[in-house]
């Protein structure tokens, strides 16, 4: 990721919805060294912010609806959440939740792109998003997996104005040319029941060692550590509750 703070149009936050909040706290603390702090207010619903040092880096939450899957979600920064959801709908997406105010920290919405991937919108007030990117244990890349890449490209460039750096095998997304993520064609590599989705990648010092820690802590390796040609070393892991996420070597651009 080529920026070190939230920028409008780029990913600003990632949060896990989990069926076992206490188990997730233990797993990710062991994996990344996070320090989780749960908001004690009843109306916060158990929302837990993970820190590295003084920086907020991600969130862990209980499942708030029966239909909500155990999964990581990615939020993108917008200047005006209400205007952003109008763009989403005009471009063929669907607004699932909101926009709604979250205390005094920001305004929030959940949307579905035309290919079926869920993403979130965040209009910052007192909380801009993650305080650190692409350092070990923090968000370093986000990747859309979809079966309809051209439709997704049209949608996201319309909604966010992203720049596109495309090659025959991979598309990279950027804000004004500063790449922060990519898009992969799901093709036949995923079972039909796996829906299109956004996958966060966390930076780590050692991908292979992190994969080993994840397995010993009760998680699983979905994609074994591999070095991407002209790119970083990566792996895709699954936590004990079933949420998938990626890891890549810190400081290595996708």
From TrEMBL:
Residues 10-124, 138-250 form the VOC domain. CDD domains: SgaA_N_like. Transmembrane segments: none annotated. InterPro entries: Anthracycline_SecMetBiosynth, Glyas_Bleomycin-R_OHBP_Dase, Glyas_Fos-R_dOase_dom, VOC_core. PANTHER family: GB|AAF24581.1, GLYOXALASE-RELATED. This is Hydroxylase. It comes from Streptomyces filipinensis.
């Amino acid at each position: 990721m080529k920026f070190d703070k939230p920028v409008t149009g780029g990913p600003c936050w990632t949060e896990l919805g989990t069926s076992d909040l206490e188990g997730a706290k233990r797993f990710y603390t062991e994996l990344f060294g996070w320090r989780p702090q749960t908001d004690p207010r009843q109306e916060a619903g158990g929302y837990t912010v993970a820190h590295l040092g003084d920086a907020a880096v991600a969130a862990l939450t209980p499942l708030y609806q029966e239909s909500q899957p155990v999964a990581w979600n990615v939020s993108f920064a917008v200047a005006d959440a209400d205007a952003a959801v109008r763009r989403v709908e005009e471009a063929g997406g669907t607004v699932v939740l909101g926009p709604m105010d979250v205390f005094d920290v920001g305004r929030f919405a959940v949307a579905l792109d035309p290919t079926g991937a869920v993403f979130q919108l965040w209009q910052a007030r007192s909380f801009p998003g993650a305080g650190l990117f692409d350092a070990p244990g923090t968000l370093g890349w986000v990747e859309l997996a979809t079966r309809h890449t051209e439709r997704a490209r049209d949608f996201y460039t319309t909604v966010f104005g992203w720049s596109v750096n495309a090659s025959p095998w991979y598309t990279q997304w950027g804000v004004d040319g500063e790449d922060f993520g990519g898009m992969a064609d799901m093709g036949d590599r995923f079972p039909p029941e796996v829906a299109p989705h956004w996958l966060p990648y966390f930076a780590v010092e050692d991908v292979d060692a992190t994969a080993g820690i994840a397995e010993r802590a009760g998680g699983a390796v979905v994609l074994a550590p591999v070095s991407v040609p002209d790119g970083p070393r990566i792996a895709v892991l699954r936590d004990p509750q079933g949420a998938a996420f990626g890891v890549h070597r810190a400081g290595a651009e996708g």
